[in-house]
Amino acid sequence: MSAKIFVARLLGLDVFDPQGDRLGRMRDAVVVDRGPLLPPMAVGIVIEVPGKKRVFVPMTRVTSMDPHQIITTGLINLRRFERRGAELMVAGDVFDRRVLLKDGSGEAIVEDIGFEQQRNGDWLVTELYVRRNAGRTAFGRTRGEHLLIDWDAARWAGHQEPQGATSFVAAHEDMKPADLADVIHEMTPKRRIEIAEELQDERLADVLQELPEDDQVEILSHLDIERAADVLEEMDPDDAADLLHELPDSQQELLLELMEPEDAQDVRRLMEYDENTAGSVMTPVPVIMPPEATVAEALANIRQQEFTPAMASLVIVARPPLETPTGRYLGVVHFQKLLRYPPPEPLGNLLDKDLEPVSDQMPLGVVTRELATYNLTCIPVVNENHRVVGAVTVDDVLDHILPEDWRITDVPEVGDETSRVHRKEASR
């Protein structure tokens, strides 16, 4: 193993067992603060294993690290990682932290830290890679000198303060909402609120939809009431309705009144349905077009970014008005069929009339069976007058048939302690 490593160079690297099988990807390193007189100790790394679960691997089980890969003994604990006591996440807590340089030259920002293995096998933080601020350029950008200094050549400014929320959001701007939600869920409540306040409304809405209900309520309740309404507007109506159901009636009504009338109307309609019915989980704004519309117009419509792949898999054809509840339902045209016909062809000539829509009062279990029986990713929903009121997609169904804590429940594994070698022996 190399004598010294820098954490930023390792983030995102693949982690392998001794046989060369990939275990996951490194997402962070964990250090323990031992006070002002002793250097922090590196105690392990956090890797993301299949299933988007983050687990802890002690440094004693890391056999090799270099800029290309990380190799472990293969034995890992598959319980979800939770930090303890004085543990700090290097990327999450230390990077971008402000320090005071003891030589009197001012403040600096930590951009990387170096570990070095001691003779007794311990890994200690021995160096900091910092950027010393030196004012701003004419274009407003921060400029500064980069320095590699000993760990004790700087003093933490506000030692217990984590990485600034602004820096955290900027560092994770390319992360998918579901992955960012997973990271935020593991934070303390105070830290979750700080990050939520820094996120843009649309980004926060996407992340909220991926969080457990308790986290959603906690974050929304701490936002300014007008901003909370803005975030709800950015959420999918069915997710916004589910979240509002978890709030007191008085708060529900206040938020709905602050929302744009059109957005609030969609959410109110969903909240009127009994729980676990098609109407309660449907998307109230699917792709709906008249029979006179052409293939070219339909393809242009489903290209819109707001439609998920599941929702764009079919076009619902109905008589005007086309806003839900529409005129009478006529049928659907599947996306693949659109690709087989010339652009001028009217949708009315391509209808799949055999696909029966589901009732808005139909139990969710029956809707699930309909989707599975006919291999559908989307199915129209109609009211008692056979007018389209929405559509249920496969992702709407999955969110409700999985366990309530599926977002935070560990993926089933062979055991808490497992390895490729142990699995081989167990199969003999």
First-last Cα distance: 33 Å
Q: What coarse outline follows from CA principal-axis ratios?
A: elongated
Strand content: 25-35%
**Helix tally?**
16
CATH architecture assignment name of the largest domain? Roll
Mean pLDDT: 85
Assign the CATH class of the largest domain.
Answer: Mainly Beta
Radius of gyration: 27 Å
Molecular structure report:
By secondary structure, the protein is an alpha+beta fold. It folds into 3 domains: 1-163, PRC-barrel domain (SH3 type barrels), CATH 2.30.30.240; 165-272, MgtE N-terminal domain-like (MgtE N-terminal fold), CATH 1.25.60.10; 288-401, Roll (CBS-domain), CATH 3.10.580. The protein has 16 helices and 21 strands. A hairpin with a 4-residue loop joins strand 10 and strand 11 (106-117). The model is unreliable at 135-141 and 408-428 (pLDDT under 50).
Summarize the structure.
This protein is of the alpha+beta class and about 425 residues long. The protein has 16 helices and 21 strands. It has helices at about 90-95, 165-170, 175-185, 190-200, 200-210, 215-220, 225-235, 235-245, 250-260, 260-270, 280, 295-300, 335-340, 365-375, 395-400, 420-425, and strands at about 5, 15, 20-30, 40-50, 55-60, 60-65, 70, 75, 85-90, 100, 105-115, 125-135, 140-150, 155, 290, 315-320, 330-335, 360, 380, 390-395, 415-420.
Topology:
Layout: E1 4-6, E2 14-16, E3 22-32, E4 41-49, E5 53-58, E6 62-65, E7 70-72, E8 76-77, E9 87-89, H1 90-94, E10 98-101, E11 106-117, E12 123-136, E13 142-150, E14 154-156, H2 165-171, H3 177-185, H4 189-198, H5 201-208, H6 213-222, H7 225-234, H8 237-245, H9 249-258, H10 261-271, H11 278-281, E15 288-289, H12 295-302, E16 314-318, E17 329-334, H13 335-340, E18 358-359, H14 364-373, E19 378-382, E20 388-393, H15 394-401, E21 417-418, H16 420-426
